[in-house]
Design brief:
Helices cover about 70% and strands about 0% of the residues. By secondary structure, the chain is mainly alpha-helical. It has 2 domains: about 200 residues, Hypothetical protein af1432, CATH 1.10.3210.10; about 170 residues. Helix 4 packs antiparallel against helix 5.
Length: about 425
């Protein structure tokens, strides 16, 4: 019997919510239900990028719900991964989940133990989701809650300086395992680390108000630095303040994800079309070989046979149209290049041109960030239009095939009976 992952996932969610409601402790300022829900959301975000299949997605999400449950139990803070994995195993086995899936979920939970050592992509996703906040604006707030929880559960006081040193050590030793989180979070994680290092070295972070006793020293230092700059660059003006920079890494990640998703969807469409072409070709071959020769002796089968053959041919035609490539003339004009209306990232716009013209065009693209981003946007839009047409034709093909089977079976049945 095929497992209903959506139903089991909802049961896991309700079980964990109930567990925290009954057993949650007020001293859990960090490892509370909010943290678990945040990790689940992060797992879903990362899983969507990698387009996990239904089973792996369930394993990652279920492990995220279970991974910190043992914090609700007294004395389990130091071995919570092991106990949380045991709780997950008990619940999932009661629900009839396969042993292999239960083992995978338990391994995911155990992989979050520090230092993390995930061995599979699903384990890497959970580990990165568990420490997702290290690379977000929410890091400082969550770090303070972590310190507050540690003091409450251990009944010990930790100074800000001591806690800061431990946090710096964590950020310096930690690394995200998935390339998605590396691209998305590493820059902000480094900024969070630099802020802590500034405090550790006694440097005031940007926008921080300087205490009255230090104003004079800071003012003298600024005067000296300004004088030194003027001496070194007497003929150069002080550059104007730059406008707020675009989040370049985030934009690049967005384009990379979009292109990857479109490529995967295109591969799926081609695979579906190939299946439909193969199935209909087999049916047509079998009907022609076995049924057509009997039509002279059994004329009642003529109409059902024509329905089946006609529907299969139509479905196959639409599948072929879905995969049939449409290629432009392979040229771009100087006017298109100067107007920034050509997409040089698509081979169909240049495959008939010589290398020198294409090289000059690409130099224009690389030198002009607006042209570059416009090309990327146009490329994604074009891919989307092609995908839309593919899936539209595939839907028609599958619909025709479905009704062909229904009508032909009814027609053969009627012909046989009457």
């Amino acid at each position: 019997m095929e497992m209903n992952y959506g139903l089991i996932e909802e049961q896991v969610k309700q079980y964990v919510l109930s567990y925290f409601a009954v057993n949650g402790k007020k001293r859990l300022f960090y490892h509370d239900l909010k943290h678990t829900e945040t990790v689940v959301a992060s797992v879903k975000q990362i899983s969507a990028h990698y387009q996990l299949n239904e089973q792996d997605h369930f394993i990652a999400v279920a492990a995220a719900w279970f991974h910190d449950m043992a914090y609700c139990m007294a004395g389990e803070a130091n071995m919570h991964e092991l106990k949380s994995a045991a709780l997950a195993g008990e619940f999932l086995k009661e629900k009839g989940v396969d042993d292999s899936i239960v083992t995978a979920i338990k391994n995911c939970v155990l992989a979050t133990k520090m230092p993390q050592h995930p061995t599979t992509l699903v384990e890497q996703i959970l580990c990165d989701a568990d420490l997702f906040n290290l690379g977000t604006d929410d890091f400082s707030t969550r770090n303070k809650l972590m310190r507050k929880e540690y003091e409450a559960t251990s009944n010990t006081h930790v100074s800000k300086e001591e806690w800061r040193k431990g946090t710096i050590k964590l950020l310096q030793s930690h690394h995200y395992h998935t390339d998605y989180c590396q691209d998305l979070l590493n820059k902000k994680k480094q900024e969070n680390l630099e802020k802590l290092l500034q405090k550790e070295n006694g440097l005031a972070p940007k926008n921080e108000v300087v205490k009255p006793g230090k104003e004079k020293i800071k003012e003298e230092k600024s005067i000296k630095e300004e004088k030194l700059i003027k001496e070194e660059k007497p003929n150069k003006e002080v550059p104007a303040l730059k406008k707020e920079e675009r989040p370049v890494r985030g934009i690049e990640t967005m384009f990379r994800i979009a292109v990857t998703n479109h490529q995967r969807l295109s591969d799926m469409a081609d695979s579906k079309a190939n299946i439909m072409i193969s199935v209909n070709s087999i049916i047509i071959s079998v009907v022609i070989a076995l049924v057509v020769r009997k039509l002279e002796t059994t004329p009642a089968l003529i109409i059902p046979t024509l329905i089946l053959l006609g529907g299969c041919v139509t479905a196959a035609i639409f599948s072929v149209l879905a995969t049939r490539p449409k290629i432009p003339d392979g040229y771009f004009t100087p006017e298109q290049l100067s107007g920034k209306t050509v997409n040089l990232l698509f081979f169909g716009n240049f495959y008939n041109m010589d290398y020198d013209h294409y090289y000059e065009g690409m130099k224009r693209v690389m030198e002009d960030s607006e042209f570059l981003y416009a090309s990327l946007i146009r490329d994604i839009y074009s891919q989307g239009k092609v995908l839309g047409n593919k899936y539209k034709l595939l839907r028609i093909s599958y619909t025709v095939f479905m009704f062909t089977l229904i009508l032909s079976i009814l027609a053969f049945g009627i012909a046989t009976l009457f």
